[in-house]
Amino acid sequence: MRILKIQTLRGPNYWSIRRHKLIVMRLDLENLALAPSNEIPGFYEGLVEALPSLEGHYCSPGCRGGFLLRVREGTMMGHIVEHVALELQELSGMQVGFGRTRETATPGVYQVVIEYLNEEAGRYASRAAVRLCQSIVDRGRYPKAELDQDLQDLKELWRDASLGPSTEAIVKEAEKRGIPWMSLPARFLIQLGYGANQKRMQATMTDNTSILGVELAGDKEATKRILAASGVPVPRGTVINFLDDLEEAIENVGGFPIVIKPLDGNHGRGITIDIRTREEAEAAYDAARQVSRSIIVERYYVGRDHRVLVIDGKVVAVAERVPAHVVGNGRSTVAELIDETNQDPNRGEGHDNVLTKIELDRTSYQLLERQGHTLNSVPNKGEMCYLRATANLSTGGIAVDRTDEIHPETVWLAQRIVKIIGLDIAGLDVVTTDISRPLREVDGVIVEVNAAPGFRMHVAPSVGIPRNVAGAVMDMLFPNDQSSSIPILTVTGTNGKTTTTRLLAHICKQTNKVVGYTTTDGTYIGDYLVETGDNTGPQSAQLILQDATVEIAVLETARGGLLRSGLGFEAANVGVVLNVAADHLGIGDIDTIDQLANLKSVVAESVYPDGYAVLNADDVRVAAMAEKTKANIAYFTMNPDSDLVRKHIQKGGVAAVYENGYLSIVKGDWTHRIERAENIPLTMGGRAPFMIANALAACLAAFVQNVTIEQIRAGLKTFRASVSQTPGRMNLFNLGNHHALVDYAHNPASYEAVGSFVRNWNTGQRIGVVGGPGDRRDEDFVTLGKLAADIFDYIIVKEDDDTRGRPRGSAASLITQGINQVKPNCRHEVVMDETQAINKALDTAPDNSLVVILPESVSRAIKLIKLRGLVKEELHQPNTTTNPVDSQIGVTYSVLNKLL
Fold first, then answer.
1. Alpha-carbon distance 588 to 698, whole Å?
2. The dihedral formed by the CA atoms of 19, 25, 29 and 35, expressed in degrees to the nearest 10
3. H-helix or E-strand containing 593?
4. What average pLDDT score do residues 195-206 get?
5. Tell me, what's the pLDDT at 563?
């Protein structure tokens, strides 16, 4: 077997709208293409020996063991690789279950689709599954050592990708509330929400967290002084920088027992408590000095360690932290009890797990000795042996929930303290013998105030009720159900995407909000170009959605990005599907128009249930997408007598209709006329039907997003098919004695669209400079030739500079073949070089003629035209003589007023 390609999908996609994280592997079975599993000697036995847990896979039989039954009876290797890749992830701790396997148009080549939780792990599991299956085919087995290595690697990848307990709790709460989130490529930042409504977090610090509060909390001695000045009970202590000052510091705090800790430490590093001798104090000083230059010496207060979590000025959780320990059973040594405790699957390395494995240090041995034990001692049954003096979870401690036990006065004090320090999220370390009594009654103290406190002791305590502290964070960041997102309007289709996207963005700008939009020409925010290029994929969408200035996102969505990575967002408020026609067929395993329609339907299916799918009622495949989406439906049509639209309106639906020369919005029993087509510059004076259709789609998308009719009208009348607003889309130039039209038409549907305008040109000869991208099918080029012969009087056939792997001359020959099939006597010639072809057409054009240039490079074609001297770009100003009364008709004012 041979892996041809592996792609990573990160959003709604061709394979699944709900399952966003998918690996797509293009797998060539080669000599196994005709060999089902039951015909491969020993394969079933070898597979069961390697992965007996596959017994849990149901597969199509729908019962436990169903997949292995399929393997025994005979199934293709692509299907087996799918299940093995999923099982390898499962065995490594990643809960995945979705998979698909489909043979492509190329016999023996399969697309194997598997779900993943971590991208690297998903890709690794895909490759490992192929290795495992190939090994069993070749050798009858997959060595256990190799399988163990695969699983170890996968576990490490999963562990390294872990968000950590605190961030994971926040992300899960965001997902539960429907708040989109993404990881940002710096400093472990997480973005919650989109655009101008986003919030950012780093661990448990938010973008509202005060830097002054963080700095103050990080300086333990300064915090203590501030709190002491405010009447808060804090430990008696001092700061030293030299060992020579240690003895005096001990005397100043009242003598032993004492605590020594680094001034700038965290996670309990370098802290030693309950120090009782000078020798212990000097050793503790050395340990703290490894963490910080300045050392805190404090009086040791007897009591239990508690963490009080305050979010947005309110105490939301309290946990008692019990230091790492083991409990004797009367049989096992301390060392054996530690090993047994560390076998708990919840314990792992570091502080990113629910619990941390117990590791011993110098203080552990001192503590055991003080309790009369060594590692070889056998504690009595029920006897607790402490192994750490500090109660941090990161050193192996456990947490006991005490939220319901804290005294109201301590709640008040904690909330006051966090206000004094100036933090929105803070963890207070409180030492007290009884958390249910006021601190002043039991000689309790506030030991520290922590910025960015960990959440794991509260969301997963060892004993007691888990607390939804992440919910309190969400309530703070997005109070009163404040929106976390921005309106997202996405546009797809075979033709007209860029023009419609730009027009829709222009209409949305009339609301005076900042609009970010992506097109095949570049990414824009407001009136400024951010990034040039064909930016119609998920990365460009992410750029817009990550920008904190953007208030509305309008995103062009092309087939390439959908296939490569899926959508770049969870869902949209409006999804526009313009049309589906033959283009790029045979590329990316999309071989038929129906498959292309299924791909484009991702945009319609990924609209929120309370949003709108804006569909072309005149395109059967697009109209059928209404059955796939849970969103509201809005149709647009060039046919005022459309039966589909009529029934839709009768049911209370909304539609945009081209009727009696007007672009109109129709809903229920009223019609609101927006503007005459001839007064809309984009429609070329009403002579470009496909531009009217694009305008209808944009108007309808804006309308269902609550843009007013007046704002829509203003957008339509100020948007033009010009080089500045729609480069390469019906750009018409007046060269004095003739005109030139530049349009990036490159498939049969777009040729037809341009032809609908060109046929209306009746003042002179119609000249076409035509070609097409080299990665199209032979029959597509023949079709382009046929269409060109029907549109133009004289044709110059050229080829793109980049033939995309096709032999030079092949595309031109096929186009010529199509011309001859339709009009053998049509005047035409081949000029391979695009620049030469354009110049020849412009040089030889008769008076009053129209030269239509369908270029590979729009910018080059426009430059060649402008080099000819004084050129006027025709922008088609609206007809200002139209009676304004005709532009708006309210049929039933009571209904209209209610709706608006």
1. 29
2. -10
3. helix 593-605
4. 95
5. 87
SS3 (DSSP) at 363 = helix
Average pLDDT of the chain to the nearest whole number: 89
**585-613 b/e (C-beta count within 10 Å ≥ 16 → b):** bebbbbeeeeebbbbbbbbbbbbbeebbb
Q: Tell me: cis bond preceding 257? Omega within 30 of 0 counts.
A: yes
The residues, ordered by sequence, that sit 6+ positions from 897 with a Cβ below 8 Å of its Cβ are: none
* Beta carbons within 8 Å of 14's beta carbon, 6+ residues apart: 562, 563, 566, 598, 599, 602
Mean pLDDT of 376-395: 80
Cβ(40)–Cβ(20) below 8 Å = no
Residue type, 700: L
- The confidence score (pLDDT) of residue 111 equals 95
* Token pair of 414 as six digits: 């904690």
3 state DSSP class of 421: helix
Report the DSSP beta bridge partners of residue 317. Answer: 309
**Sole residue written with tokens 């896979």:** 57
Higher pLDDT, 260 or 752: 260
How far apart CA 387 and CA 371 sit, in angstroms, is 10
3-state secondary structure of 652: coil
Residue 319 tokens, joined: 């946990």
- Is 435 in contact with 407 (CB distance < 8 Å)? yes
pTM for the complete prediction? 0.80
Of 318, 271, 300, the residue nearest 445 (C-alpha): 300
Residues 873 and 621: their CA atoms lie apart, in Å, by: 37
Q: Return d(Cα 709, Cα 715) in angstroms, integer.
A: 10
CA-to-CA distance for 536 and 556, rounded, in angstroms? 5
User: Residue 869: pLDDT above 80?
Assistant: no
What whole-number distance in Å separates Cα of residue 603 and Cα of residue 17?
9
Distance between CA atoms of residues 148 and 141, nearest Å: 14
Evaluate whether 732 touches 741 at the Cβ level (below 8 Å): yes
> Rounded to whole angstroms, what are the CA distances from 303 to 28, 372, 412, 552?
67, 21, 20, 55
Residues in the chain: 900
**Which H or E element spans position 258?**
strand 258-262
Angle between helices 709-717 and 689-704 (to 10 degrees): 150
- CA–CA gap between residue 84 and residue 92 (Å, rounded): 12
pLDDT given at position 870: 62
Tens-place pLDDT, residues 307-327: 999 999 999 999 999 888 888
The residue type found at 721 is: A
Cα-trace Rg, the chain: 35
Distances (CA, A) of 274 to 269, 507, 599: 16, 70, 67
CA distance 310 to 316: 6
DSSP H helix total and E strand total for the chain: 30, 39
